[in-house]
Structure formats: C-alpha cells, structure tokens
C-alpha cells in the first residue's frame, strides 16, 4: 500500500492519500505518425529498441507511482489496444471504455472518469502519447498543498531548431543547438480532485473551457517538472527516433 502524504500545519496534521487511480486518453488517430498508426492506435506504437508500446511504458510508470486501477479511453482501432491489454502482463487493473464518437479531450476525460473505481477520490490523467518519468506522488502533494481543483505538469521542451545569440548591436555571439524553450508548456499529465469531473464538458476541449475558468478562480496549479526529469511527446516518426536515441544513451 502506498504511504499517504502527511501535511503538518498550524491547525494540526492532515493525512492526504496519494491517488491510486488514473485515466489514459488513448483514442487519437495519430495521423502524423503514419504509417506506424495505419494498423494500430497511437499509444500502441512501440519505442524502437524496447519492444513495448507507449502505453506499456505509461502503465508501468503509473503502477510504480502507486496507481492500482486505470481507465483507458479508446477510439481509433480500439480493438487492437484492447487485444494487447488482454494478452499483456499488466502491473495494475485496467478498464477500457470506447468513445463511439469523438468527444474531444475534455469530453473524453469526463466519459472515462465515469468508470473510475472511486469517483469521490482524486485521480491522475495523462495523454496516451506521453513518455515520461517523474514523481507523481510529489506532483500530487504539490496539488494538495495548493488546494487546487486541477494541477497540470509543465515541461520546457527543447526547440527543434538552432538558436542564434546576438548582442545589442546585432553582432552574432554564438550558435546554440536545440536550446530549451523559454516557455513552459502543458506536459499532458494531470492531478485532478474528485470535484473536477463535474466541471468537464460533455464534448470539447477542457483546455479551452474548464482550465481557463479554474485559472480565473485561482484553482488551477502548474507543476514544473523537476530538473532532469525525462519527458517527450511522441507525435512524429522523428520523436520515435529521438526517444530511441535518448533511451540508448541512458
């Protein structure tokens, strides 16, 4: 059993149990990953050299972080993903739900959350094309300490182009290959309080509806990924190649 997070404050000691349930959004078509996604959904694409699809890495990570139950929201070529889940040796319990029509990311989250084992408890969520490793427990503690309704992980990806550094007179000083972005982005990993589910749209994108509302109310938190944490969104064939190189270098 995962140890709870203990918060000590002026009014005493409060025990916050880490989430043990999660949703994975795995219904996207992955058109930019063709031909890999011609016969399988995007989360079923394998990282070269691992023999394991993206969702396999995600489930292993979630289990290592104390998650015991996951709901996988399927769509495009759902049967391929379901067949793999049945045959694989999974480290946690998995339930699949199938979107009969595209619901959007917010609608997909709400649809999947209806099948959570404990709807009255907090939960994690992740997009099905994210390959990452960092402490979800620390993120959950961050979420709780800020009394947030929703917390999103924030990444600072590397810019895919070389940058040029100049001085105030326009002289070129240096060339920097693939520098970190100066901006934080939504890393596609979340911690949600139980109340968040009711705020999601039936159809549409929560990033355009629910998140802006929570931000205005100061109930949305952003958790910067720790320095050195691995994170990559697998969107294109180049991402697969880069992920394989990074894995080989670890």
TrEMBL record:
SUPFAM superfamilies reported in the protein's UniProt record: Nucleotide-diphospho-sugar transferases (SSF53448)
Nucleotidyl transferase domain mapped to chain residues: 22-247
Pfam families, alphabetized: NTP_transferase
Gene3D superfamilies: Spore Coat Polysaccharide Biosynthesis Protein SpsA, Chain A
Designated name of the protein: Guanyltransferase
Lineage of the organism: Bacteria, Bacillati, Actinomycetota, Actinomycetes, Kitasatosporales
């Amino acid at each position: 059993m995962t140890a709870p997070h203990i918060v000590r404050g002026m009014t005493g000691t409060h025990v916050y149990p880490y989430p043990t349930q999660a949703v994975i959004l795995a219904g996207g078509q992955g058109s930019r990953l063709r031909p890999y996604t011609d016969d399988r959904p995007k989360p079923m694409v394998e990282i070269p050299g691992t023999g394991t699809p993206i969702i396999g890495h995600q489930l292993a990570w979630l289990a290592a972080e104390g998650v015991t139950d996951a709901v996988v929201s399927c769509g495009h070529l759902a049967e391929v993903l379901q067949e793999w889940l049945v045959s694989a040796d999974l480290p946690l319990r998995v339930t699949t739900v199938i979107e009969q029509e595209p619901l959007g990311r917010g609608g997909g989250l709400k649809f999947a959350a209806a099948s959570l084992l404990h709807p009255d408890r907090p939960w994690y969520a992740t997009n099905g094309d994210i390959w990452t490793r960092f402490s979800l427990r620390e993120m959950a503690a961050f979420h709780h300490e800020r009394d947030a309704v929703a917390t999103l992980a924030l990444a600072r990806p590397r810019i895919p182009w070389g940058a040029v550094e100049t001085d105030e007179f326009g002289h070129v000083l240096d060339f920097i290959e693939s520098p970190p972005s100066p901006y934080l982005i939504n890393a596609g990993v979340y911690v949600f309080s139980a109340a968040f589910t009711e705020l999601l749209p039936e159809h549409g994108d929560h990033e355009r509806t629910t998140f802006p509302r929570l931000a205005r109310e100061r109930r949305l938190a952003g958790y910067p990924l720790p320095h050195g944490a691995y994170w990559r969104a697998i969107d294109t064939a180049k991402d697969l190649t880069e992920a394989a190189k990074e894995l080989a270098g670890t």
